[in-house]
Amino acid sequence: MKYILIVLFTLVLSSCKCQKNNGHNNLTETESIIINNFIDVELTRELYKNYKDFEIVVIKEAFKEINNLNAYEYAYENWHSNREKATLEENQQFGWILNKLEIKELKDRLAGKEQYYWQASDFKKIKISITKYDEFKKTIVKDGFLKMQDRLIIFLSKPLIINENYAFISFEIGNGKFGFGSITHFTVLMKRERSKWNAKNYFEDGVFN
Is 3 helix (H, G, I), strand (E, B) or coil? Predict the structure, then answer.
């Protein structure tokens, strides 16, 4: 768990240091639909049945959107390491919507992109509270985590929209016991199906809980 925390701290801190946004940016309508379609379904999974009465806390500083591509790239290269080329059916089945060149080009475009800061109003159907990363870190360092044992802590990226049909979201969730007991983390490929965005494929980043 210590290794997971170090990775989380690095991701968030590097994101904060590189950005100068004043925190007043907002989600687009499409981004709002995607994130709410995802979070509303994700938190109803059987995985969280023991936490149904927990308060939900979202870390204000969003994961950088490039994190989505890092996890996707890791999974893509791992899958293709002993295969020459995926078939059209395999691309659809495993969610390979970007090739290596497209990944690189998109990473270059995302370099230096402004930080996004979550607001409680971003989440339409669930009640959440927002806390800054620094406040969360201080709570852990000072053993204040004893007050957080009945809370779910969420680190989340803003949707990275690839085109009108696909988007990525990076997600990390843990319970407040002992500061941050990781439950799961992944990058998910969201697909638009009629008026709703649904989770289709999940990608690991090579860091295991």
Answer: helix
Asked if 115 and 15 touch (Cβ cutoff 8 Å), the reply is yes
- CA 41, CA 4: separation in Å to the nearest integer? 25
The alpha-helical segments, DSSP class H, found in 22-80 are 29-42, 66-80
Q: What radius of gyration do the chain's Cα atoms show?
A: 17
Lowest mean pLDDT among 9-13, 55-59, 153-157, 191-195: 9-13
Nearest Cα to 166, choosing from 206, 145, 193, 205? Answer: 193
CA distance 147 to 77: 42
Q: Return the pLDDT at 160.
A: 97
Q: CB of 188 within 8 A of CB of 171?
A: yes
Q: What digits encode the pLDDT tens for the residues 26-47?
A: 999 999 999 999 999 999 999 9
| pTM for the model | 0.84
